[in-house]
Design goal:
28% strand; 61 residues; mainly beta; globular
Length: 61
């Protein structure tokens, strides 16, 4: 028996970058589905929110 994945990492291309970086994680093992920015991403000086109204740059889900 196999199970469906419940976690996915989210990558983002930052302005001027040649490669994407991991910016966070989506967890679908509970309802509602949650998103959490990565600590290393939040500490970057060039970090940008992926969707400002609903996902501001802040720690936590």
């Amino acid at each position: 028996m196999t199970s469906e994945p419940t976690t996915a990492f989210v990558w983002i291309w930052l302005s001027g970058a040649e490669n994407p970086v991991v910016c966070g994680r989506i967890d679908a093992d509970r309802s509602p589905v949650t998103f959490t920015y990565g600590r290393h991403y939040l500490n970057r000086s060039d970090a940008v929110p992926i969707y400002e109204p609903e996902l501001p740059l802040q720690a936590g889900t």
